[in-house]
């Protein structure tokens, strides 16, 4: 039997842990189906009932299982590739949505699976047999070496064998032959629980399923794989979760990769009696395509990178893959925030991700571990790479048979609290393991600025300090990251530079500089332009034996970026300190490194650190051993893009007599890079000369530069860990008359040079080019190069002059602002009485009255740039202080009432006249006689905040709560009460109970219990004939009972938009409104324009002539429209001959609409009222989706979402001259838009993940963006594209020119967005 064969595998003799790790990677073949854990009814498996959404009866475990921090005794197995500790909700509530679910879930393959009609089976059991427990133990021990003594006492197995995806039944269509087999095993020893997911070779034939809610919209959602704890107790926040997949490719690679070294086998630590904030993946395995190379110890493997790679079975080679192509991504503290992880099998879980984290560190659960420095075994030279050599790979150890998976390990030695790893063979130091301090009361992660790389620590609730040893030890600055919530671009994009774009990653957001700019994203400067530095210098020095103190003297630096020259001037340093500082060129040399000329493959300091960093220097002079410490702190860029820096100098320097000059020869020094730290140590000679006197001295300098990095983005694997700074010219001078100390250096940054290279160097790389100082040098072949003026300048590159953006209009200063031109840039300043909005370009009116500066008994009058206060009637004073007028016999209410009545007599006056009671007191409820607004007031007549109500709504209740009144029950309520009494109080799921709204009226949609059998009713509850639906569809019922109105208002589900350009998008049964400010999304002003219950609105377009919006409804199988005018009603214009109308396009010139039907496989047209309908095309179409019209040139374009042969076609508007435009290098062209201004046809492809454009004839094709998520629909406006995205469930904007993401809007309601269109305040004319 299979189980006997599994149980009888031979066991190898003990192997040292570190030696075993590389061996595990040499497994060549993927998991064979026979190598799954034994299953079948002969093993005691129970069989889950066939069906589409079945759930097992509760499985009461003989031994409880720990999942996260909780202990569970019950398990449920579901058809849809999922196990839970509680019964499942209806599948529509979780199958079609991304992770996490709102209930506990263990998901080896969460998708819409259907085992009806014998299409596979689902088996499950609890098992305590030695064969199963032994195999599970061997897997766990291999993946978690510090759990070498894990001995499970029980296991739970669930197997999905040859199961199929849910498919709609179509006449004459056979079910798909794609079937999946996979298995989940949960093993526990009573204290710790582990999960094993197994995917045999060829076991995943379908990678996702189509959501039911999309009806006939042919989209496929990749399967979700991972774990989640479920909602938190307060039901408002997500609990911890761990997500492995988000794309089809990442799902496919589940059986091609592994975190155990066996393709298709994955292991996870999922629960413990000790603290376990989140699931922890095994960290022994690696990239199977580089199986012959050892795992770089101390580095965390990027499964995200590996699983997003495209591995086809035809070309997947587990041996012969270029090792340089493998990408590695270190686990970082920021990746462990908030207990959530939703990255594609990256295993950088947001709570605990560290390299080999279960391999060589102290186990908080077992209190045992293995010190890498104490492992016995053969010499590991060549198998273990140092931190400084992580870009190289070493030869692989010999192959080992898969049966070697289960060695019998010896008990590891006790792990000391703070143990240093032994040095690497090259003698370089290896960072020490770190202490784990007690939990901190606040949830934050503290990263100290220690200069080593690739090292992360366990994170838990509380504070952990992580870092590596500092070779200076004097910098106490701490970088702190808040772990309260994951930060996203939506709320934090303003932290990025104006010249950067913001990108969301699984664990947070990062900023990236736009094209032609460089920096770290939060600070970006134009390439090739000169840069300036302003700062202050303070010092407490002893020069020889003389103390010298100075505070905040000026520092200015000027840098020529295109040849690496940096000039620094420090004024008013008192003698003798200024003369003694001559040899300390590193004070100005910092700016040389920061803006050094970059050689190919290298980056200068500003590209990494931006404008926020700390530079520490410790200099020891010889032979006197005087020591000085210098700290330079960069504090960002000012509004004119000048770098701000503070310098502090402390210590002792040798005395240098007056009139001596200092000379330093050109030099080269190595800079070592690791995570957020750069270090360098070197020695320099300098000579002091005066006349015939020439003396040579020296000093040794240690430098340490610390800065913040964004660890959420994938790390670039090719970036060198060591770069060489070449300083070709060094100059130092002090002028006693000017009292100015000057430094000048010329710098290049590049790779480490072994010997001088006689090959000619391109002038761009050594600064010998003839480009203007405000131009970028572009290297060509050999010594050829071209010059291009930097951003903000114009000319031929050899000669560049400043471009006056203020004069040409190429600026972003808004109304009520003044544009001030600056060299290479400009600045916006607001006029008097205005202030900047958050975008720092738009000036908004300052309402001083909102600051409540006046007395409470005064009225504030705001004027541009100022305001005034005036005491109200019944008071006297200057408005800032008001005193009741005791001479008046009127109350304050009566005084204000008389004053307002006098003002009301003036034409056009709209003053509020206060209402007083018989005693002259303010009535608690005040209403404006002209506007209809109402609000509550206190006894002094001041408005109670939050009580104002708009016209037509119910006025607020002011004063004590009213006594409850009982209205008589309505017909609906009486009928409901009678039926409930008849049913005995609790109806069955299939029994009808009338649904009533809050006012007791019948809701328009009525359904049989929890079934899908629904129908529409009129206001009396009578069924509307012809509306009864079948399962899977919902009738579109329109409310028949009008809400109470004070005066005519729009329908309650229609909110008219304001004037201006805005986007309309469809989301289920709603049409959303998203206004634009220029091209920026005004997310705060977004709202619902129209709500149609029971609809699924897909396509949408706009008629600019009549201000009418049109849409398709795949649930109602209709095409409808509604005016954007106040009080307009929706109107159905096509209601027959449709099955799945999707794409829709409006020709506002010919008054014609065009649409696609993906089930009828047709493209049709009709006039805008639905008349003169005709079929344009009904052949050679498989899944027509998007459609676009060019009314100026008379062309029609559409996409065919045919997986076998996707294409984009065109024809004339009357259906003539049909031809294929694009049919190569496309996958799933969902969205299509035609820009009448640029004459470009552009599409968003959910298969290739690209946004591309072409000319109307199919030529000039180019890629705008190549890393979309899952786009559905797209529209073009101005210099941006806006598309809806099914992965983000939002609207994403992309810049046309740079191709970068600029913003996104995520509606509060989490569901898929479909169509999108732009609404102009005019009809675009375009150009021919």
Low-pLDDT residue intervals, each spanning 5 or more residues: 1-28, 285-338, 342-484, 1041-1055
What is the SS-derived class?
A: mainly beta
Q: In oligomeric terms, what are we looking at?
A: single chain
Q: How many strand units? A: 78
- What does the radius of gyration come to? 36 Å
**How much of the polypeptide forms β-strand, as a percent range?**
25-35%
Bulk shape: globular
- First-residue to last-residue Cα separation: 76 Å
- With strands numbered from the N-terminus, the spatial order across the biggest sheet is 25-26-27-37-36-33-34-35-29-30-31
> What is the overall number of helices?
13
> How is the main sheet built?
11 strands, mixed, barrel
> What is the share of helical residues?
under 10%
Mean pLDDT value: 76
What features would you describe in this structure?
With 1328 residues, the chain is mainly beta. The chain has 13 helices and 78 strands. The strands form 22 sheets. It has an eleven-stranded mixed beta barrel. Strands 1, 6, 7, 8, 9, 10, 15 and 16 form an eight-stranded antiparallel beta sheet that branches. Strands 54, 55, 56, 57 and 78 form a five-stranded antiparallel beta sheet that branches. The longest helix has 14 residues, at 130-143.
């Amino acid at each position: 039997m299979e189980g006997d064969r599994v149980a009888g595998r031979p066991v190898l003799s003990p192997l040292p842990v570190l030696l075993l790790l590389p061996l595990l990677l040499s497994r060549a073949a993927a998991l064979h189906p026979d190598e799954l854990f034994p299953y079948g009814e002969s093993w005691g498996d129970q069989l889950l009932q066939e069906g589409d959404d079945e759930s097992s009866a509760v499985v009461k475990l003989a031994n409880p299982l720990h999942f996260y921090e909780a202990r569970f005794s019950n398990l449920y197995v579901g058809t849809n590739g999922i196990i839970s500790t509680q019964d499942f909700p209806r599948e529509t509530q979780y199958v079609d949505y991304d992770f996490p679910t709102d209930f506990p879930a263990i998901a080896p393959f969460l998708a819409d699976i259907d085992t009806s009609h014998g299409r596979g089976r689902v088996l499950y059991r609890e098992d305590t047999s030695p064969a199963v427990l032994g195999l599970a133990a061997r897997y766990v021990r291999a993946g978690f070496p510090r759990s070498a003594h894990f001995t499970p006492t029980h296991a739970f197995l669930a197997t999905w064998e040859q199961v199929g995806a849910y498919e709609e039944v179509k006449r004459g269509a056979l079910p798909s032959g794609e079937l999946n087999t996979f298995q989940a095993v949960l093993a526990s020893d009573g204290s710790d629980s582990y999960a094993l997911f197994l995917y045999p070779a060829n076991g995943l034939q379908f990678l996702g399923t189509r959501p039911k809610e999309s009806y006939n919209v042919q989209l496929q959602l990749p399967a979700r794989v991972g774990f989640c704890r479920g909602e938190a107790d307060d039901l408002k926040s997500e609990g911890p979760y761990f997500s492995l997949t988000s794309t089809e490719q990442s799902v496919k690679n589940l059986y091609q990769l592994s975190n155990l070294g066996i393709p298709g086998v994955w292991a996870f630590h999922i629960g413990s009696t000790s603290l376990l904030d989140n699931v922890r993946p095994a960290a022994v395995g690696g990239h199977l395509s580089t199986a012959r190379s050892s795992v770089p110890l101390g580095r965390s493997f990027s499964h995200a990178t590996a699983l997003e790679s495209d591995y086809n079975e035809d070309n997947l080679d587990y041996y012969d893959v270029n090792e340089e192509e493998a990408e590695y991504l270190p686990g970082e503290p920021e990746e462990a925030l908030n207990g959530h992880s939703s990255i594609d099998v990256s295993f950088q879980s947001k709570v605990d991700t560290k390299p080999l984290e279960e391999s060589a560190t102290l186990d908080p659960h077992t209190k045992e571990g293995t010190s890498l420095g104490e492992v016995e075994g053969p010499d590991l030279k060549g198998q273990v790479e140092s931190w400084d050599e992580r870009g190289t790979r070493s030869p692989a150890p010999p192959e080992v048979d898969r049966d070697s998976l289960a060695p019998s390990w010896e008990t590891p030695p006790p792990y000391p609290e703070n143990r240093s790893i032994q040095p690497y063979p090259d003698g370089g130091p290896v960072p020490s393991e770190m202490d784990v301090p007690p939990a901190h009361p606040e949830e934050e992660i503290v990263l100290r600025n220690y200069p080593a790389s690739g090292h992360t620590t366990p994170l838990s609730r509380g504070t952990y300090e992580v870092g590596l040893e500092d070779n200076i030890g004097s910098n106490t600055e701490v970088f702190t990251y808040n772990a309260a919530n994951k930060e996203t671009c939506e709320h934090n994009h303003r932290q990025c530079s104006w010249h950067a774009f913001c990108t969301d990653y699984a664990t947070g957001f990062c900023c990236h500089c736009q094209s032609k700019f460089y920096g770290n994203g939060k600070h970006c400067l134009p390439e090739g332009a000169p840069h300036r530095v302003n700062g202050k210098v303070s010092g407490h020095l002893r020069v020889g034996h003389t103390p010298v103190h100075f505070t905040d003297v000026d520092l200015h630096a000027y840098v020529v970026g295109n040849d690496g020259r940096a000039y620094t001037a420090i004024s008013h340093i008192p003698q003798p300190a200024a003369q003694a500082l001559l040899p300390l060129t590193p004070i100005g040399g910092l700016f040389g490194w920061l803006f050094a000329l970059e050689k190919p493959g290298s980056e200068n300091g500003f590209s990494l650190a931006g404008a926020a960093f700390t530079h520490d220097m410790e200099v020891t002079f010889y032979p006197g051993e005087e020591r000085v410490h210098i700290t330079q702190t960069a504090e960002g860029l000012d509004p004119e893009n000048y770098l701000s820096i503070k310098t502090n100098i402390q210590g002792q320097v040798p005395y240098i007599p007056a009139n001596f000059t200092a000379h330093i020869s050109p030099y080269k020094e190595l800079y070592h890079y690791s995570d957020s730290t750069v270090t360098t140590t070197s020695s320099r000679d300098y000579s002091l000369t005066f006349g015939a006197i020439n003396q040579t001295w020296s000093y040794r300098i240690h430098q340490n530069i610390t800065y913040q990095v964004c660890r959420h983005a994938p790390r670039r694997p090719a970036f060198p860990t060591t770069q060489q700074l070449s300083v070709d010219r060094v100059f130092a001078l002090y002028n006693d008359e000017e009292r100015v100390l000057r430094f000048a250096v010329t710098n290049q940054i590049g790779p480490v040079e072994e010997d001088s290279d006689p090959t000619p160097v391109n002038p761009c790389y050594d600064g010998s080019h003839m480009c203007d100082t405000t131009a970028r040098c572009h290297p060509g072949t050999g010594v050829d190069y071209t010059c291009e003026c930097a951003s903000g300048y114009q000319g031929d590159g050899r000669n560049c002059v400043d471009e006056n953006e203020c004069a040409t209009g190429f600026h972003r200063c808004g109304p009520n602002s003044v544009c001030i031109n600056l060299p290479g840039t400009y600045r916006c300043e607001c006029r008097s009485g205005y202030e900047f909005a958050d975008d720092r370009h738009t000036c908004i009116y300052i309402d001083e009255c909102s600051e409540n500066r006046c007395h409470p008994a005064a009225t504030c009058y705001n004027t541009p740039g100022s305001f005034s206060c005036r005491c109200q009637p019944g008071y006297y004073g200057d408005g800032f202080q008001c005193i009741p007028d005791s001479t008046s016999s009127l109350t304050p209410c009566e005084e204000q009432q008389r004053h307002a009545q006098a003002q009301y007599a003036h034409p056009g006056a709209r003053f509020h006249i206060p209402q007083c009671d018989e005693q002259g007191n303010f009535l608690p409820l005040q209403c404006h006689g002209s506007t209809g607004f109402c609000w509550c007031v206190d006894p002094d007549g001041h408005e109670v905040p939050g009580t104002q109500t708009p016209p037509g709504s119910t006025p607020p209740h002011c004063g004590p709560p009213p006594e409850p009144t009982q209205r008589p029950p309505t017909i609906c309520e009486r009928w409901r009460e009678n039926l409930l009494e008849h049913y005995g109080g609790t109806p069955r799921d299939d029994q009808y109970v009338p649904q009533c709204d809050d006012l007791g009226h019948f809701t328009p949609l009525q359904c049989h219990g929890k079934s899908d059998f629904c129908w529409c009713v009129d206001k009396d509850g009578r069924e509307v004939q012809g509306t009864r639906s079948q399962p899977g569809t919902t009738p579109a019922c329109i409310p028949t009972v009008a809400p109470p109105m004070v005066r005519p208002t729009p329908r309650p589900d229609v909110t008219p938009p304001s004037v201006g350009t805005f986007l309309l998008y469809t989301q289920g049964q709603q049409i959303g409104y998203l206004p634009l400010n220029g091209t920026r999304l005004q997310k705060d002003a977004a709202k619902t324009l129209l709500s149609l219950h029971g609809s699924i609105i897909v396509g949408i377009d706009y008629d600019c002539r009549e201000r009418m919006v049109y849409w398709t409804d795949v649930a109602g199988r209709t095409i409808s429209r509604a005016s954007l005018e106040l009080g307009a009603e929706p109107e159905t214009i096509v209601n027959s001959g449709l099955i799945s109308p999707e794409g829709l396009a409006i020709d506002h010139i010919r008054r014609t609409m065009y649409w696609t039907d993906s089930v009828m496989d047709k493209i049709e047209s009709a006039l805008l009222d639905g008349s003169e309908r005709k079929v344009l095309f009904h052949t050679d179409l498989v899944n027509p989706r998007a459609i676009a019209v060019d009314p100026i040139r008379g062309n029609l374009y559409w996409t065919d979402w045919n997986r076998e042969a996707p294409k984009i076609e065109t024809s004339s508007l009357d259906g003539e001259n049909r031809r294929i435009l694009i049919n190569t290098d496309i996958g799933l062209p969902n969205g299509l838009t035609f820009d009448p201004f640029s004459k470009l046809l552009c599409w968003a492809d959910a298969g290739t993940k690209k946004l591309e454009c072409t000319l109307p004839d199919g030529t000039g094709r180019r890629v705008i963006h190549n890393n979309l998520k899952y786009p559905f629909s797209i529209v073009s406006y101005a210099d941006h594209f806006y598309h809806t995205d099914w992965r983000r469930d939002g609207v994403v904007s992309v810049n046309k020119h740079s191709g970068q993401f600029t913003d996104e809007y995520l509606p509060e309601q989490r569901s898929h967005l479909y169509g999108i269109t732009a609404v102009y305040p005019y009809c675009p004319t375009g150009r021919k």
